[in-house]
Design brief:
The chain is α+β, with helices and mostly antiparallel strands. Helix content is 58%, strand content 18%. Strand 2 and strand 3 form a beta hairpin. Helix 7 packs across helix 9 and helix 8 runs antiparallel to helix 9.
Length: 489
Amino acid sequence: MRIEAAFLACALLCAPHPALAQARAVSPVAGVPSPSGVRPSQLDRPVAVSLVEAVAIGVRDNRDIRAAFLDRAAQRFRLRAAERRFAPRLDLLADVYREDLAGTVTHQASLSGVGSLLLPSGAQIGFVWDRRQRLDGRGDSNVATLAVTQPLLRGGGFAVNRAPLRIARLQDSIERLALRNTLAEGISRIVFAYRALQQAQEQVRLAELALARTGELIATNRALIDAGRMAAADIVQSEADQANQQVALLQVRQQRNSTQLALLQQLALDPATNIVAADPIAAEQVPVDTQRAIAIARAGRMDLLAQQRAVEQAREGLRIARNQRLWDLSVVATATRNAGRDPLLGPLPSATDNRVGLQLAIPLGDPAPKLAVVEADTSLRTAELRLEALDQAVESQVRDAAQRVEAAWFQVEAARRFKTLSARAVEIGRDKLAAGRSSNFEVLSLQDALRAAEIQELAAIIAYLDALTSFDLQIGATLESWNVEWSGE
């Protein structure tokens, strides 16, 4: 099943007719609309929705999914900010001021800039420029300084300086997986809610069918009583069963209303919409290859992939922590150029000062770097243990899900056989009753058994379909099963 763009654009909300809205019940006590005024009203025109359409609407409008995509926008910006680690930066400052020095008043303006650039090798290039100008034109000064520092030990090397960027990219990948997981879980919740509505609708149909069967039996009883072949008191059993079936019908109708509301909430639709599950309830056996499913889960389970990236993050963190324990030995080079004009002496000669050397800083008595290494190493080992445990848990969960699918199918087959035999037993019992070779109580018992068989078959089919949906979620194939194409970007 593929979600087409047409489904995503469909509008399935049907506004209730004003006259019908006014016909809804109003509580005589509180003076406010009763619950029947907000639940799906059977007076409203039904809105038939297929499962594919329900998933499409949910992907578009489900509030949890929409909130996750909104969060993703901030996450993408955070990654873009991290990727500017090696981009040049420049700060500009300009001012104009009046200076009164021992009665001498001057007006000056200044413009300065500070630039910096971090290279992947760890080298830092800094540039400072300062220009000051007297507004009367009698003096100015220009100072420009270029400084280059290349760490040789702590803070030096391509691997260490790219580690923060790799950590940020891994975190972004984890967040994309989380978004994908949110989308898959949202789709699964919609599917479960849709099937619950299917089951509730079918239960209403079965209850109405059982009530009709009881009505037919009562008609047969009256015919037998009129013919003198049944005592008049025996019809009480059938009438009592009819009353019980009416109560059961009211209960399943209320259950259908509840499942409608649950599905409408998942789809973010108006709670007054009389939504109807249009797809028929059908199940066919889907063979499950457990070993292949485990391989798919290891390649597609979001939590497992996220933990693998968490291990890589921990390795990068340990790399940084170990580097921070080294001595700070750097090559330092600076160049400063001065130029300007003195109010009395006139233009000053330009001068350039150059400096090149080594700079060494040795931390003594500070346990923080060692503590950072210990904590980073512990975090890495813990992440690896969690990955091993999660890998084992994934295999166990997939095996359990596969066994549940197989067991659910066996239950479907058994329930179908039970229903077929129960229906045949009711036919035989009615024929015997008409021939006077069976009792009314026996036919009622057979009809109760048939109703139980129908409900059992329905529950078994829904359970099998839900087991397949859960199996897709366990192996991380929900989006692929629904052909949902998405981009975490």
